[in-house]
Design goal:
Structural class of chain B: mainly alpha
Order of helices and strands of chain B: HHHH
Structural class of chain A: mainly alpha
Shape of chain A: globular
Distance between the termini of chain B: 29 Å
CATH architecture of chain A: Up-down Bundle
Strand content of chain A: under 5%
CATH superfamily of chain A: Rhodopsin 7-helix transmembrane proteins
Helix content of chain B: over 70%
Number of domains of chain B: 1
Number of domains of chain A: 1
Number of helices of chain B: 4
Helix content of chain A: over 70%
Strand content of chain B: under 5%
Shape of chain B: elongated
Largest interface: A-B, 21 and 17 residues
Oligomer: heterodimer
Chain lengths: 235, 78
Amino acid sequence: MLACTVFTLVGQSRVLPKYRSALVMSSMVTFIAGYHYFRIFNSFNESSMKQAVSIGTSQGSFNEAYRYVDWILTVPLLLVEVIAVLGLAKAASSSLINRLVPASAAMIILGYPGEISANNSTKVLFGVLSTIPFLYILYVLFVELGKSLDRQPEGVAATVGRLRLLLIATWGVYPISYLIPILVKNPTANQMASLFTDRQIGYTIADVAAKCVFGLTIFKIARMKSAAEGMADSH
Amino acid sequence: MNNLRMWAYAMIATGLINWDYQRAQSNIAIHSLAIVVPGFLLLTSTFVPSLKASLQKKSVQAIWFVIGAAALAYAFIN
């Protein structure tokens, strides 16, 4: 995450100034996520004893809600990055941001009660509720944003198309990880430990893909647009 | 101005995560506020016209860069 932060910061001179804000946002997202992982490791250390991790909301326990603090701070920025790198007219970009940012915040906030609940029905209920803003985000990105892609340089529309698929693929891992605990009925202690580990692995892979790979794709789009607008290739 | 806002956002976000993870520690509010408050001040300054003008100066930007870097480094060690 932190290496990706450095890359997008250093790479700013390789794109036109108007696309640099998207790269700055990307570097902030990966920095915040990197710092969050640094603290997650601390939290695992504090909550681990004799190869067991204490999980819950009490002090000294590993609390899954920590991830939600990271996501609420970074996910809206990820969507703003996409809009920023496309360099749309101010009215169009404001309209998209005003819809995407609240929807992404709602998606995360609605997922939180299900995440901390031990009840499977509550998990499913909030999982479904959280999916509604997610579907709205997809609608805006595929239908509304699609209308703005006609004026983009050759190749950019295709890359943005791949970016949207990447978003579905990586964001799709989150609900799968979220639902992992309910896949096994009446799990034993060992199974619970495995399910917990599987969920952490799922969230971590999704985070790296959704933030680093996403940021690198934004960098690629910024490079393509800069080249299309006359920036020398030597940069 | 956008870069300064992002710099401020990084300080606020990092400070909040710092706070969230160490709630049980003594004086954590003060430790975390040392990161959040400069970020909040910088973010506010970018929206106040009179302060906004001073933020255009390279020297002022350099000072904020140093303050931010120090705050973010502090977030890793406290």
